[in-house]
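Example record for the data management plan.
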Amino acid sequence: MNRRILLLATDLEIGGTPNVVRELAIRLNDPPKVTVEVACLSIWGPVATDLADAGIHVTSLDALGQLDVAVIGRLRRLIRQREYDTVYSLLVHANAAAAVGLIGLRGVRQFQSIQTTQPRPKWHWKVQAVAQRRAEAVVVPSQSAAAVARDWAHVPAPKIVVIPNAVDVASFRVEAQQSGAKGDAKSPMRVGFIGRLDPIKRVVDLVRAAAVVGERATVDIYGDGPDRAAIRREIAASGVERLVRMHGVIAGPRDVLGDLDVLVLPSDAEGFGLVLIEAMAAGVAVVGTDVAGIRDVVEDDVTGMLVPPRNPLVLAAAIVRLAEDEALWRRLVVGAAVAVKAKYDWSVVLPRYRQLLGIERESDCPIAAAPSADGALSS
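Corresponding structural encoding:
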């Protein structure tokens, strides 16, 4: 039977979830046996262009905002016209739109994904609690995300499937990165943040840490978002204009990871932290806060360093340790490379999606779903 699967995202702007959608669509698409197409609730974005260039059919549903309920009618028409048998939606707005849009459409399966552990806004979790009732399964990227899906969205544990985000390890050429030393011993450590400039990311803590580290490191901040002005004010207040530079939006982490020695993710919470495994695959040491989502990915002193959230002094101390201890930096880079290849390469993760979506028989998949300690399925 020919399969027709729609991946539905809230938007296709540059970001972690749109990147997951892009890679998943391209890798699952196998016409004529399996046709994967993509839609977003909002207007056309850069990732939509990437998908179209890769030969994936993309539809933007052009919602005017979160309260544009007319988008549900456009989604229903799309599902009927394109004759999808499965809809896999990601994030609360897409999950809710799909749950409502599929009412009365017989023979169409729905899967949903929750990619966050952020407690606010609380109404998101109330909406998700209602939307998840329509889904056959809810995919989360980490055990932390599984816990909040169960506790805040009231998703039954047997319905939760843990499938981590993934990278194409080979494309990062880890071995080539590791063959050289980090920077120059006399040069400052090159530290970076890559991501949306949202208050929950706590980039201001990295700026404050830079003031403590001083000339031993430079900090490059890549991305944009609502916290940009606050970060600029903190740079000026901390007197680190020479050491901290803001670069705005980039096409993807791969474009700048080669210029970094250390990637810092100082968030209050993450669903997973895709940029962490991208850095790990690129031979860049990682420092993250010991919070939900990040601690699922980073094993302290083995694949990276974990520090308490909202503590610039401890963050600064971690950066200084890496700047002064070449052996520690190299050990963490090597440990991260081993872990990312074993756990987060697409060759490991993609079969789990194929099994979930019924593209392969269970016996064809190298890793079968099994209950985890808290009852969630870990594929």
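Summary line stored alongside the record: Confidence is low (pLDDT under 50) at residues 174-181, 361-379.
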